[in-house]
Design brief:
By secondary structure, the protein is α/β, with parallel strands linked by helices. α9 links the parallel β13 and β14.
Length: 552
């Protein structure tokens, strides 16, 4: 063999799982050889020895399992820097817990600092109306703002509302809303992005340098969580400058595919701007596709349901004229631009899947995101529409309960909650299904997602009864959801290890195909490799992290 056949990196383990349809690819394989960021050989130890000389880095992990690099199909790393400022409220179960966490946070602030928090679960309010009473109590005259876990709502104190000039009489170009009491006074509850921005725009910003370092750390934590790639469902205003600044001095810890938003209510001419962004790239990031939203969330009463929720809310689209969404989708498809649409409520899902089904050209792939409560009729259209799907198993397991005592289930009622998070039905219907976290809504934790998708409960809470156990995925379908399917759902191929494939690899200490899901949830990420680079080595960098966010 010539010098050209010598590998830069060879990884040995007990098993190689290629996810290739040809089983011969991995029969008896114990390792992978990599040259210049590409897999050049998969085989047993004897065969791969010929690829090794004194220049080759060899990593030997006996008993471990080599897999294609995991993809988180829904993340918000740049926006997440802002969304996770302040006190972590994600573990708070009562208003007393929230007050305690906020008082601990305010004790460390300077007089000029805002009181901030994130990850608030509306379940803490129980049957009470959501209001900023606890914020006013803790913050006093200090401005204060906390974000809800789903990032579609916020609470602002009276002082913060005053700084933002919020009166409760604001009108928006989408379904955003400033909630008011019977006297027309703002309660501090801000629903959807345009309303939230009234306060966010007066919040003291983080420095650019701080954001560069924070973004790198967020992405590194995702790599520690087992991911080698992330599909970013936004393009934050300074995302490209931040990524460019990182790549001036180092490589990104994971690959990023970023899809800018088409904001509800924006004129059709927006397509021209979004089209111009397509293909912008750095070494390990690219702008590709467009993200749309048809509705908000069930938890905050801003989803789009066929019938009102049990509080009389979630009755309309975020688009004041939903036909504008259809026009935008048609124009994006005509230009061959793939889309992902946030659709959570049954009416929203139904509208989007029918819009995709009605496209005349189908020049691009169109994916539907979240799909939290879906009718059988919508599923039937899904099957004929060429639409693909993306869901977050931990949104079900972390934020709903089998006894339907949670806010999401109470709002929907038994019948609609019973049609929730239908992962098994989608896969059984032959619809490509990618899995992800929606970080910072939930942890960007690959093995946690794989485990919860099978258990339909938190993998670290064996006492919790499963939620809709008939919708559980089997081990291979869950694994496809983090490897092959994230590519299929955007019209690409990937997530397979074979000669010639990009060297994005995740190595676990146990086999996700065969291990009990409860044990899988505690698996260690031993190695993550991106483009042939060892980004995380458990012997140096520690095992998986949760990339902040979520309730663990």
């Amino acid at each position: 063999m010539t010098r050209d056949g010598i590998a830069d990196l060879v990884v040995f383990a007990g098993t190689v799982v290629t996810m290739d349809s040809d089983p011969a690819t991995s029969d008896g394989a114990e390792g992978v050889a990599i040259v210049a960021g590409e897999v050049v050989a998969i085989g047993n130890r004897t065969a791969l020895q010929a690829r090794i000389d004194e220049t080759t880095r060899v990593v030997d992990l006996p008993g471990a399992v080599i897999l294609p690099g995991f993809v988180d199909s829904h993340i918000h790393p740049v926006f997440g820097i802002e969304l996770t400022r302040g006190a972590d409220l994600s573990r708070c179960r009562t208003l007393a817990d929230v007050e305690s966490a906020l008082r601990a946070e305010v004790a460390g602030l300077s007089p000029e600092d805002w009181l901030l928090g994130w990850g608030l679960d509306p379940n803490v309010f129980g049957e009470e109306a959501v209001s900023h009473a606890v914020l006013n109590s803790v913050a006093g005259e200090r401005p204060a703002r906390i974000r809800f876990f789903d990032a579609h709502a916020a609470l602002a104190s009276d002082a913060a509302l005053a700084l933002g000039g919020v009166t409760g009489r604001e009108e928006f170009t989408d379904g955003s809303r400033v909630v008011t009491d019977e006297q027309g006074r703002p309660t501090g509850y801000l629903l959807e992005l345009q309303a939230i921005d009234l306060v966010e725009r007066v919040l003291p910003p983080l420095s650019f340098e701080h954001r560069v370092d924070a973004l790198y750390e967020v992405l590194l934590n995702m790599a520690r969580g087992g991911f080698t790639s992330g599909q970013v469902q936004d393009l934050a205003p300074d995302a490209i400058p931040l990524l460019t600044a990182i790549e001036e001095t180092r490589d990104l810890p994971i690959r990023l595919r970023m899809s800018p938003w088409y904001v509800p209510g924006t004129p059709i001419e927006e397509v021209v701007r979004l089209a111009a962004l397509q293909g912008a790239h750095g070494r390990h990031w690219v702008v590709e596709g467009v993200k749309l939203m048809i509705d908000g969330t069930i938890d905050n009463g801003t989803a789009w349901l066929h019938e009102p929720d049990c509080l009389g809310e979630s009755t309309t689209s975020l688009w004041l004229d939903p036909d504008q969404y259809r026009n935008a989708l048609t124009e994006l498809d005509r230009r061959g631009i793939p889309t992902t649409t946030h659709a959570i409520g049954d009416a929203g899902i139904d509208f989007v899947v029918r819009a995709i089904d009605g496209l005349t050209e189908h020049a691009a792939t169109h994916r539907i995101e979240h799909i939290e409560t879906m009718t059988d009729a919508a599923l039937a259209v899904f099957m004929s529409s060429k639409a693909t799907a993306s869901m977050q198993p931990t949104h079900c397991t972390l934020f709903t309960r089998a006894d339907e005592s949670d806010n999401w289930s109470r709002r929907l009622g038994h019948a609609r909650a019973g049609r929730g998070f239908r992962t098994r039905d989608l896969v059984s219907a032959g619809i490509p299904l990618a899995l992800g976290s929606d970080w910072p809504v939930a942890p960007s934790d690959a093995v946690g997602i794989l485990a919860d998708a099978q258990l339909r409960r938190p993998h670290d809470d064996p006492t919790a009864p499963p939620i809709g156990p008939d919708q559980a995925l089997d081990a291979m379908d869950a694994l496809r959801g983090l490897t092959v399917e994230p590519y299929r759902t955007i019209g690409r191929t990937g997530g397979v290890l074979r000669a010639g494939a990009v060297a994005d690899i995740t190595v676990l200490d146990r086999d996700p195909r065969t291990v009990d899901p409860e044990s899988l949830g505690e698996a260690a990420v031993l190695l993550t490799i991106v483009d042939g680079r060892v980004v995380v080595d458990a012997g140096v960098s520690g095992v998986r992290g949760s990339s902040r966010g979520g309730r663990r």
